[in-house]
Every structure is written in structure tokens, then in C-alpha cells.
Amino acid sequence: MSSLTREDVKLMLNKVPEVTLYFWFIKIMATTVGETAADFLNFNLHFGLTGTSVLMGVSLAGFLFIQMRSQKYVPWMYWMVVVLISIVGTLITDNLVDNFGVSLETTTIVFSLALLATFIFWYVSEKTLSIHTIYSTKREWFYWATILFTFALGTAAGDLAAEGLKLGYANSTFMFGAMIAFVTLFYYAFKANAVLAFWIAYILTRPLGASFGDYLSQPAANGGIGLGTIVTSILFLAAILGMVTYLSFSKKAAGKV
């Protein structure tokens, strides 16, 4: 840390976007795309879980490499990595459940523990979990590892609630949405710790997005409204593209320093 100049710190802090309503809207849409795009590649394009996993894994590795090499926050690059991590996180859980027969209960527990361990190692190493203090490569690795586990956990928890516990996609969507609303209320009304509130809400957006994506894309016989993975993915990708384009040409594109 001592070798970084003040300008270096500012540039690296700019790699993380400011947490605004735009951030949360894009994040939720990215989680939904992660669910529907994985299903689209797997089933509609007949890539299969293995083929889809390889394709998305290689894509993520490439874009993450570019993201890590960048010295400033670039909206389209940052959100491309988030979308790809969302898809890969979904595929990790799907592979464990469908190809290896691991139960949703087990995957939920395992990824919960993995996420907790990541938080612990991150805090022990850096003494903070704030996303606005990511001014080193190590902290950025902790950041992306945390996000990957939130997506894998969210997929497992969302599927467990909707399918394993038979709540259905609509009820699961409302449940996770209500939980996020409660965290938001607790933060603003009772001045809860900002870092803690952020990560709880961030974790919950994944099962919210997964449940909502399934609700939109799945046929009525399965508890959805039958838009299909193609239409749902296109709608949300277009919305993400529109918001990211706007952020790229506005002052809101700057990260919080």
C-alpha cells in the first residue's frame, strides 16, 4: 500500500461504481440474466451444462483479466464481468445439482460457508469489507471472489425456496424482495452499519433475481408466465445496455472516491 501514490489510489477506487439506484437496478437485472442466459445456452442452444460452463468460464476469465488490468472504473467492462459472473455462478450450482447430484440444501450450506470464509479472510487481511476501499489488486480479488460466491449461493437459495420448499417462483420473488426492503428500512431508519447492510442486500439480490428470472421465463405449468429464456434475456440485457450506456456518458459513471 505504501508504494501507491494518492493518484494511484484514486484511479483504482474508480474501478468500483458508486452505490446508487442505478447500481441496484443493474445488479438485479444482471442476476436475472444470469439465470435465464444460462438456461438459454444450456437448453435452447443445446450447449449442455458442460459446454455452457466451458464457454462462459473462458469468457469470464478473459474479461476479468482485462478488468483487473484496468486502472479505472469502466462501466461496460465492470458490468460485463458482473453479468458473466452471474452466469458462471448459476452454472456452478447447476453443475453440482444436476451433474453431481448434490442437493440444493447442501449447495446452499456449502456456498454460505464459502462466502463466510471469504469475508473472514478478506477482513483479517484488509481490516475492512467496504467496496469503496478497493485500491489494491488483492482487495479486488477478494471483491470478485465474494461476488462469485454470492451468485452461486443465490442460485442455490433461490431454487431451494422456489422448488425445494415448494414456494413457487412468484412467492420466492416477493419473499426475497421483502427481505431486501426490510434491510433497506433498517439501514435508513435505524442507521445500521452501511457495509453490513450493503452485503446483506447484495447477497439477497441474487435469489431475488433468480426467482424473478424463472418466474418470467418458465411456462405456466411450472409456475411462471411463459416469456421464455430468449425474450427474458433480451429484455434485461437491453435494459442493462441502456443503463450502462447512460452511465458511461454521465457523471454517474464515476466511482465513489
Mean pLDDT figure: 88
Portion of residues within helices: over 70%
Give me the secondary-structure category.
mainly alpha
Strand fraction? under 5%
N- to C-terminal distance: 16 Å
Q: Tally the beta strands.
A: 0
Shape field: globular
Instruction: Characterize the main sheet.
Output: none
User: How many structural domains in the coordinates?
Assistant: 1
Q: Give the ordered list of helices and strands.
A: HHHHHHHHH
The total of helices stands at: 9
Brief synopsis:
Helix content is 77%, strand content 0%. It is mostly helical and 257 residues long.
Write up this protein.
The chain is an all-alpha fold and 257 residues long. The protein has one domain (6-253). 77% of the residues lie in helices and 0% in strands. Helix 7 packs antiparallel against helix 8. The radius of gyration is 18 Å and the shape is globular. It starts with 5 loop residues before the first helix and ends in a 9-residue tail after the last helix.
List the helices and strands and how they pair.
Elements: H1 6-13, H2 21-44, H3 48-69, H4 75-99, H5 104-126, H6 137-164, H7 169-190, H8 194-217, H9 228-248
Helix pairs in contact: 2-3, 2-4, 2-8, 2-9, 3-4, 4-6, 5-6, 6-7, 6-8, 7-8, 8-9
Keywords: Membrane, Transmembrane, Transmembrane helix
Organism: Sulfurirhabdus autotrophica
Protein name: Putative membrane-anchored protein
Any key phrases for this structure?
257 residues, membrane, Putative membrane-anchored protein, disordered C terminus, 77% helix, mainly alpha, DUF347
